[in-house]
Amino acid sequence: MFQNSELFSLTYGSLVAHLVNDLENTEGVNKQLERMGYNIGVRLIEDFLAKTSSGRCYDFKDTAEKIQLAFRNYLGVTPTVSNWNSQYDEFSLVFTVIPLTEFVELPDNCLDIKYCNILPGIIRGACEMVGTFR
Amino acid sequence: MFQNSELFSLTYGSLVAHLVNDLENTEGVNKQLERMGYNIGVRLIEDFLAKTSSGRCYDFKDTAEKIQLAFRNYLGVTPTVSNWNSQYDEFSLVFTVIPLTEFVELPDNCLDIKYCNILPGIIRGACEMVGTFR
Fold first, then answer.
1. Burial letters for A41-74: b for 16+ Cβ neighbours within 10 Å, e otherwise?
2. Which ipTM score applies to this complex?
3. B43 to chain A: which residues are within 8 Å by CB?
4. What is the pTM of this model?
5. Is the Cβ of A46 closer than 8 Å to some Cβ of chain B?
6. Cross-chain Cβ contact B11/A118 below 8 Å
7. How sure is the predictor about B1, in pLDDT bands with cuts at 50, 70 and 90?
8. Cβ–Cβ of A43/B10 closer than 8 Å?
C-alpha cells in the first residue's frame, strides 16, 4: 500500500486554486489558508493528544519536539528544528520536502502566494488549544 | 507512524465548508466538488499507472477491480464491488467507511450536500484519461 499523499496534495491544490480564483488578492488567499489551518489545528490537537498520549510540555524545546513529531505523524516528513534564539523562545522548522507541494508549479502571477500557509495556521490553532501561546 | 487521514479529512472539510459559504446553492457545491474531483482524477491516474504498472483493462469487471485498488491505495479503504447489471456495464461501489467523513456532521441546512462528491469526479477524470468512457 502506498501513502495517500498524492491525493491529499492534489486536493489541497484544488483548494488553493479555488481560493486564488475566488479571492481578490494574494494577501487574502494567504490569510484564508492560515485561518483554515487554524481551525484544523484546533481540532487536530485532540487527535494528536489522544494518539500520542502526550502530556504537558515542560519547555519550549519540548514543544518544538512535539510539533516535529506531529509533522512526522500527519505529513510523513520530519522537519529539522534549528535557529534557536538566545532566549530559547524562537526556532525554525526547516523542511527539505513537503508532500503538499508535490505536482505544484506556481504561475508567475501567484509567486507571492504562501502555498503552504495552512501549516503555520495549524500549528497556531493546535498550540493555542494547549495554552502554548498566551 | 499513524496515517494522515485525519489531516486530509479536516482539510477536505475546510474545502467543503468554504464552498458552502461561497456558492449560492447546494447544487453548485455538489457540482464544484465533482469538477474538482475530475481535475484531480485527470492527474492522479498517471501516478496510479506508474505505481501499479497497470496495463489496459480487458473488460469492465477489470476496470471495477482497478478502481477498487485505487481506493485502497489512496484512501486506505476497499469498497465492495456489487450490484452488477445484466449487461455488466453498471456496478456499485459500497463503502462501509470513508476517511473523508471523519469528524463530519452536516448541519440541517446542508443535508442535500453530496459531501464526498469529489470521489465520483476523480473516478470520472481518471477513467476518461484511459479511455474507459467514450
1. bbbbbebbeeeeeeeebeeeeebbebbbebbebb
2. 0.89
3. 10, 103
4. 0.90
5. no
6. yes
7. very low
8. yes
Instruction: For residue A99, give the nearest of A115, A77, A118, A83 by alpha carbon.
Output: A77
Query: Contact at 8 Å (CB) between A10 and A103?
Result: yes
* pLDDT tens digits for range B10-20: 999 999 999 99
All residues of chain B having their beta carbon less than 8 Å from the beta carbon of residue A36 are: 11, 14, 18
CA pair distance B132, B124, nearest whole angstrom: 9
Question: What span, in angstroms and rounded, lies between the C-alpha atoms of B98 and B71?
Answer: 10
| Structure confidence at residue B37 (pLDDT) | 98
CB contact under 8 A, A4 and B75: yes
What cell was used for A43?
481540532
Q: What is the pLDDT of residue B69?
A: 94
Across the interface, do A6 and B44 touch by the CB < 8 Å criterion? yes
> What SS3 class is residue B93?
strand
The 10s digit of each residue's pLDDT in B27-36 is: 999 999 999 9
Alpha-carbon distance of A102 to B18, in angstroms, equals 23
Cβ–Cβ contact A6 with B under 8 A: yes
